[in-house]
Amino acid sequence: MIPLHHIGKPNYLVIQFNLYKNILMLENYCSDPDCHCDEVLLNFAQLDEKHKITNNLLNLRVDLKSGRIIEKTILEPAVDADSIIFEFNQHFSQFKSHLNENNQKVKNYFSAYHGQQLPQEIVDLVNGGNCVDYQKIFGNINQISFNYLNETYLIEDQYCMNPTCLCDEVVMVVYKPNAVLSEVLFRLDLSDDSYEILKYNNKDHIAIIHHIIENKKSILESRYHRVKAVGNQFLLVEKK
Ligand SMILES: [Zn+2]
Ligand SMILES: [Zn+2]
What we know:
The chain is an alpha+beta fold.
């Protein structure tokens, strides 16, 4: 969850509840453009007459479509949380479009590359015919993870960024959190799901690859297109 003010000037609302006046509602959104959790984490904080936060009252995790409260965390023990929740629910239709628009803003922000140019390191990788780690371009958030047989795995996904190449390939390093060795390293062709195993340390590596293809294919495709778009934006001219 990322606070809205991390991506620019926020348009936070100040709410007048019956029992609590001048309550600032800070909004935190899921930054993963491929995640459809549709949740917002709201933080309600008391402002003083100088518009400074004096007291943090409570956090609510809310379903953006229905307004349902998924989770509440009381930060000020004396707060009458139920009265705030009641009024919030009662007036959710007034907050709904505001919150959903800001959710979309955060998703759009994390779908795009914000640098003025690509770092030389990335240009060198592409010119050398190498794939580029998604996180090198879009930051070290939104890493793909999955569970297989009660184990958590992480994927480092690398894409061909060369705008003139239409290989449709992603190279994946699959590893367990904090592990020294990777479990499997393979190349997947997104156009026909064919793959080439480059290295493995896990006897279930084929099953793991199939699990990834079955469950993560659409995410890998959108990430491929996102990386290609950055390649198109910055590398097309240099290739001519
Ligand atoms: Zn999410
Ligand atoms: Zn390629």
